[in-house]
Amino acid sequence: MNNSKGKIGAIVIWLLFIVISYYFLLVPINIQSPAFWAYLIIVLAVGAGLFLLNQLFIERQIAIRGQVATYLIAVTLLLTLVGGIMFLYSSPIFHAKKYASLIEKQEGDFATDVSEISWNQIPTVDRATAMRLGDRKMGEIVELVSQFNVAPHYTQINYRGKPVRVSPLEYADLIKWFRNTKEGLPHYILVDMVNGAVDLVTPPENIKYSESEFFFENVRRYLRMQYPTAMFGEFSFEIDEEGVPYWVVPVREHTIGLFGGPDSKEVILLNASTGEHQKIKVGEVPEWIDQVYEADLIMAQLNYNGRYTNGFINSILGQQGVLATTEGYNYLAINDDVYVYTGITSVVRDESNIGFILVNMRTKEATFYATPSAEEYSAMESARGAVQEKRYTTTFPILLNIEGKPTYFMSLKDAAGLIKMYALVDAEDYQKVTTGETVQETVRKFTNQAPVSEEESSGLDERERFPLEGKLVDIQSVVISGNTYFYMLLDGEDDVFRANIKVSEKLPFLKIGDEIRGEYVEEFQGVKGIVSLE
Fold first, then answer.
1. Pairwise CA distance, residues 209 & 222, whole Å
2. Which helix (H) or strand (E) holds 281?
3. Chain centre to alpha carbon of residue 39
4. For residue range 345-383, what is the model confidence (pLDDT) as tens digits?
5. How far is CA 494 from CA 159, 468, 489, 499, in A?
6. Would the pLDDT of 2 be above 80?
7. Distance CA 356, CA 107 (A)
8. For residue 159, what is the DSSP state?
9. What is the distance, to the nearest Å, from the Cα of residue 305 to the centroid of all Cα atoms in its chain?
């Protein structure tokens, strides 16, 4: 009788352990998942221990006579052995070429592929600054800050044509969750990466599925119950063009052996308000989704490609042509897509890059630009050195196209993390550093444009354009800070018109009596800036 009760008790405890541990661990039931194998081995080991204890203390027998514990121990050891063999077989030792082909690169022309952007479109806010701004915004609203915090996601996306970071709220603690979970999270934070403006956005419906929820509305648990075999990648919080919040979750699969060659082939799209979800192929995702592939996964695949293109042995011994990404990466907005970029350097990681690589985070299209340049951290040191007396720190560089050349842009911060200045560093010659107190000033100094006057500080590109038409009655050229300007008088106009030589290559050939057409903006009293000429 005691024997039967002991075994039933062991089975009940074992089943409870399985249910409770699975509820919290949420491992995918998938033989390609190392976590599943580890979980299975632990479950079997716990079961073996329970039945062994049953024999020792309830049956009072020292010897194990072919009981359940013996089989569980044997299966545990067998799974450990098989898992170890499959893990080794899935490694680059046996499949170097397959690892190298996980991502394919094409050659590109940086000046052509990456468009120049105006100074008032340059992102100045990094993730750390966005978090600081988001927390400050929450602190301004007493009734919210007492109940919620801002979640640390701050996903970078393109929203309505501009780069922003978005992050949902989260419950401040268990008590706050209990008081507010019925209504859900009422807002999310949106930070404009260009001007630092912060909006506390109210979605069409409150957010009911998030990582700060408990029980089955926790987004990870909710999706695990819907997709028990899926191997989830990183959960990304995004919004569509109407501001509806979603969780975008890549589904990973191993393409080499049992455990090797991780990649994303599908994506789960979950409406964070309604709980509606769907699994779609990566090539069929809506265009508003920006982060299908995780940056860390892309970096790993780029390193596989650089290390194993010429085989595994070469990656260890000869290391001929072995390349690696630099230690950091950042994001770049191009044509309403988000790209992750990093430098490519030799495997010894010296202080120079042989080029850059840009990878579309929605399609995984990778383009390599063979431009020898300074490694990003060297450029950061150079920027700090330009204002070393201030002891500023720099953000990780953003790669920009400035007059057809790859250029690092950085914000300079004080000890409190506040942005005080900006820096542009020539990527090909990192000793060429320009700093300024505003982005406009920095760009103009870097491109040798005229100095920014107080009247111009509001920015020409933001001003209304007016049609220009008239006959030239006088024209003079002046060199200001190494840049040529043409000053013109038009028939019947009292104001002076001026144009930078970059406006048109025809400017040096204009003569008195010519009819000109174009557009101008109001610069300051008595002077109008010509921004285009037909």
1. 8
2. strand 277-281
3. 31
4. 887 656 678 888 999 999 999 999 988 888 888 889 999
5. 43, 14, 8, 17
6. no
7. 10
8. E
9. 21
Residue type at 447 in one-letter notation: T
Region 144-150: mean pLDDT is: 87
Stretch (H or E) spanning 192: strand 188-192
Q: Which two tokens stand for residue 8?
A: 């039933």
pLDDT category at 340 given cuts 50, 70, 90 is very high
Q: Rounded to whole angstroms, how far apart are CA atoms 496 and 475?
A: 10
- Can you tell me whether residue 352 is helix, strand or coil? strand
Q: Give the C-alpha separation, 182 to 336, whole Å.
A: 36
Please say if the pLDDT value at position 474 is more than 60: yes
The candidate with the shortest Cα–Cα distance to 395, out of 423, 358, 437, is 423
**Three-state secondary structure string covering 159-210:** ECCEEEEEEEEEECCHHHHHHHCCCCECCEEEEECCCCCEEEECCCCCECCE
Among 369, 326, 372, 320, smallest CA distance to 349 is for 326
Q: Check if the beta carbon of residue 349 is closer than 8 Å to that of residue 324.
A: yes
Alpha carbon distance 492, 468 (integer Å): 13
DSSP, res 185: B
Q: What pLDDT does residue 454 have?
A: 43
Give me the mean pLDDT over the 284-300 stretch.
93
pLDDT band at 113 (very low <50, low <70, confident <90, very high): confident
What are the beta bridge partners of residue 191? 165, 198
d(Cα 418, Cα 414) in Å, to the nearest integer? 6
pLDDT the model gives residue 226: 95
Distance from the Cα of residue 385 to its chain's centroid: 28
Position 488, amino acid: M
- The answer to whether residue 488 scores a pLDDT higher than 90 is no
Supply 67's token pair: 């009981």
Under 8 Å between Cβ of 44 and 36: no
C-alpha 364/C-alpha 290 separation (Å) is: 11
Task: Give strand pairing partners of 379.
Answer: none
pLDDT band at 477 (very low <50, low <70, confident <90, very high): confident
Largest CA distance in the chain: 116
Element of type H or E holding 382 = helix 376-386
Could you give the angle at the alpha carbon of 467 between the alpha carbons of 465 and 469, nearest 5°?
Answer: 145
Q: Is the pLDDT of residue 452 over 60?
A: no
Please state, in angstroms and rounded to a whole number, the distance separating the CA atoms of residues 151 and 136: 13
371 three-class SS: coil
Tokens of 94: 């046996």
**Using an 8 Å Cβ cutoff, are 272 and 219 in contact?**
yes
CA distance 234 to 297: 10
Q: Which H or E run contains 476?
A: strand 466-480
- For residue 522, name the pLDDT band (cuts at 50, 70, 90): confident
Task: Write down the pTM of the prediction.
Answer: 0.79
Distance, in Å, from the CA atom of 226 to the CA atom of 230, rounded to the nearest integer, reads: 9
The pLDDT assigned to 1 comes to: 47
